[in-house]
Design goal:
Layout (H helix, E strand, L loop, with lengths): L5 E12 L2 E7 L10 E2 L2 E3 L6 H13 L4 E14 L2 E11 L11 E7 L1 H7 L2 H9 L2 H4 L5
GO molecular function, one term: metal ion binding
Keywords: DNA damage, DNA repair, DNA replication, Hydrolase, Magnesium, Metal-binding, Mutator protein
InterPro entries: MutT-like, Nudix_hydrolase, NUDIX_hydrolase-like_dom_sf, NUDIX_hydrolase_CS, NUDIX_hydrolase_dom
């Protein structure tokens, strides 16, 4: 049996509500990145538009309805030698901070800038720094 290369297109949402940003913790039994903090989101289905997929994924994972503002950054990386992920991260707004987590995540936090710096993985922080997101965020502390 020949193993084939896979490519997945994933969307993530940096959601601001009440002057804080939502981060979610991957469940401890997750195949990739178990127990790490990230932004909510997931794979785009074949028939979906990009922003529609983002809105759907956020709703499924957090119960939140969001307004998509703009793309923050796009990047790609390998999760193993045959699996590449293309990641598109958007800035979004929510009028609610009432989160209802899916089973994909074990915890969530509404955080300020410094908490993001302390909890998010270095790779995510690096992408945010490239686009000067943390400096421009209205969440001051």
């Amino acid at each position: 049996m020949t193993l084939e290369n896979e490519i997945h297109v994933v969307v993530k949402a940096v959601i601001e509500a009440e002057e804080k940003v939502l981060i979610v913790k991957r469940s401890d039994d997750d195949e990739i990145g178990a127990g790490t903090w990230e932004f909510p989101g997931g794979k785009i289905e074949f028939e979906e538009e990009i922003e529609a997929a983002l809105i759907r994924e956020v709703k499924e994972e957090t119960g939140l309805s969001v307004t998509v503002d703009h793309i923050l950054y796009a990047t790609s990386f390998f999760t193993d030698p045959l699996r590449k992920v293309v990641l598109i991260t958007y800035f979004c707004q929510s009028s609610s901070s009432d989160v209802l987590l899916s089973e994909e995540h074990s915890n969530y936090m509404w955080v300020l800038k410094e908490e993001m710096r302390n909890l998010l993985p270095v790779a995510i922080l690096g992408e945010l720094e490239k686009v000067k997101f943390l400096q421009s965020l209205s969440v001051n502390q």
